[in-house]
Amino acid sequence: MKSVNIIFILVVLGLLPIASFSAPEPVNPKKQTPWKLYVDSKEAYDLKQKLGDKVLFIDVRDPVEIMFTGFTDVVDINIPFKMANKNAWHNKKPVYSMQINSDFEKSIASTLKAKGLTKDAPIILMCRSGGTRGAPSAQQLWGKGYTNVYVVTDGFEGDKIKDGEQKSWRLVNGWKNSGLPWSYKLNKEKMYLNN
What we know:
The chain has helices at 3-12, 41-51, 63-69, 104-114, 134-139, and strands at residues 38-39, 56-59, 77-78, 82-89, 96-100, 123-126, 149-152.
C-alpha cells in the first residue's frame, strides 16, 4: 500500500489532520527521500502525540553526540545511523570518521516487531540538523518494505546562524529551539548500546 494511501486513511479516520504536514521538500537533493515525507520538529512532536505507540520515533544520532547535545524522551529509541569510528580519522575535517551502523535496518525491524508494529507503521527519523543523517538513514530503508518514513527537516539542534556574533551556532530552528521537551538527561532504556 502506498504511503499516500496510508496518509489518506489516517486522515479519514481522524488520526491525522491533513494540515499537520507543512514541512516543504528540501531543495538539496541530498536531503530528499524516496517517500517525500517531511515534518519539522513541531510536526514530529504533534504526530507522536496523536499516534502514540502507532508511530516509531527514532533518534538516529550517535549516542556520544546525544550525551553532549541533549535528548528528548519523546523519541521511542536511539538507533544511530552512523557512529564515530575512533580508529579512523576523517580525511577532510578534523574529526573522527563516521561509519554506517551495519545493524541500523535490522535494529529498526526488531524494534517495530517488539512494539507490535509492521513496516507499514509511520517511522520518524531525526538527526542533528535534518539532512546529514536524516535523509541518508531513510534511504537505507528504501526497498526493504517500509512505506511511511518521515524525516524531521530541522533536526534536533536546527540550522546554523549565518551572520553575527553567534555565526555557526545551531539556534535557528530544530527540536531544541522550538520549545519542545528535551534535557541533557539520557534515558538508558532508549539509548543504543552496542554490545
